Amino acid sequence: MISVAEPLLGEDEKAALSEVIESGWITMGEKVQRFERNFASAHSADDAVAVGSCTAGLHLILAALGIGSGDEVLVPSLTFVATTNSVLYTGAVPVLVDIHSAEQPLISLADAETKVGPRTRAVILVHYAGYACDEVQWRDFAARHGLLLIEDAAHASGLDGVGQIGAAAAFSFYGNKNMTTAEGGLVLARDAGLRERMRQMRGHGLTSGTFQRHGKAAGYDVTMLGFNYRLDELRAAVGLVQLGKLAQWNARRRELTQLYRKLLPAMAPEVTVPFAVMERSAFHIMPVLLPGGADRDAVARAMLAAGVQTSMHYPPVHQLAIYRRMMPGLCLPRTEDYAAREITLPLHPGLRDEDVACVVGALSGALQSTSMELSA
Ligand SMILES: *Cc1c(COP(=O)(O)O)cnc(C)c1O
Questions:
Q1: Residues designated as active site
Q2: What is the pLDDT of residues 274-285, one digit of tens each?
């Protein structure tokens, strides 16, 4: 079976975990600090705040920026539900935006322009599939409307420049991401004051963290409403090992993506491949679009029978039941068409070149067999 995504974990991670266990210091210590510094420098940033998940990171950013009740935040509907949920946690309202096009399925500037209102405070850019949103046009948009720019960089770990576009960015180290700590996340922010506020909020709003209190009898005060969004030493230790391999893994993801882009037009010409040129990307996933009228579920079943797992990114947020109730009648035609035809092909550094050929062959065969069923 060729899986759609796979964590790469081995002896190095086991050794890192053993070292933490033997040290006796298991949360908010030297490993977390080193992971923050190393991740920041890999993204040309000064410093970072490690958190328990990307979702926690997004919430932390919004809360620390003072976004809340009465505010609106622009978010693409083509994203994982965590992006919009983080806005709801603060009491603010997510305003869902269409994608630019099937070839460029990133948040549409033109649609965002029509959705800015007097309550709009921020926009969350999602670097969908690992492809970076255009920083020049979005900085200009934010400046013209007086908005904060936030990045959901869950798909873009290791892509230099990402995380520096606006006020802050959240990354994910969930098990299917470009690097993993099983669960985990991290926030980059350019402003040192904002980072300090997020550090305090991450640990219940206490005025001094666990690490600083170690060995001291010092008391603490709580000066703001905080959360428990900490990362522990075990996960930070795994993160340090994974971070050391990330550049090499992303380079392999790039090669595999290039191979898909060569084989797909030759073997499955009816399929559309978004991001037609090799733009700036961390190559997190490999989304393709089936021709209109193809039965996606039948294609996925036929590919599974041929030993190839696929996935779907994403059911649009505005079509999920909880959001449908909040925004009845909302129509985002390009997102809806994209999501109805999208299928995600396997992409991870463990794939061999022949696996890619096998996936494209299975897709081509599945399209043929399912279209015969349709016409029969
Ligand atoms: C995975 C993902 C998240 C959530 O990350 P967690 O670390 O699991 O909280 C948020 N946004 C996007 C786009 C994601 O893919």
A1: 177
A2: 997 767 999 999
Best CA proximity match to 358, nearest among 303, 313, 287 = 303
User: Quick one: CA dihedral 264, 129, 96, 114, positive or negative?
Assistant: negative
pLDDT at 214 over 70: no
- Shortest-distance Cα residue to atom 8 of ligand 1: 174
Cβ of 54 less than 6 Å from ligand 1: yes
Per-residue pLDDT at 41: 97
Q: What is the pLDDT of residue 217?
A: 47
Tokens matching residue 362: 């299975």
Residue 375's pLDDT is what?
64
Q: Is the backbone peptide bond immediately before 314 cis, with ω within 30 degrees of 0?
A: yes
User: Is 172's C-beta closer than 6 angstroms to any atom of ligand 1?
Assistant: yes
Residues 17-42 as b or e (16 or more Cβ within 10 Å = b): beebeeeeeebbbebbbebbebbbeb
Q: In this predicted model, what pLDDT tens digit does every residue of 133-166 receive, in sequence order? A: 999 999 999 999 999 999 999 999 999 889 999 9
The strand pair at 168-172 and 185-189 is best described as antiparallel
Q: How far is the CA of 95 from the centre of ligand 1 (A)?
A: 19
Structure confidence at residue 208 (pLDDT): 76
Written as six digits, the tokens of 293 are: 């009228």
Does 157 contact ligand 1 (Cβ within 6 A)?
no
Sign of CA dihedral 105, 110, 114, 116: positive
Confirm whether pTM is higher than 0.90. Answer: yes
State the Cα–Cα distance between residues 106 and 154, nearest whole angstrom: 14
Q: Provide φ and ψ at 295, rounded to 5°.
A: -90, 100
Q: Per the structure block, which two tokens stand in for 152?
A: 């959901």
Averaged over 356-362, what is the pLDDT?
98
CA 38 to CA 101: how far, in whole Å? 36
Cα 14 to ligand 1 centre (Å)? 25
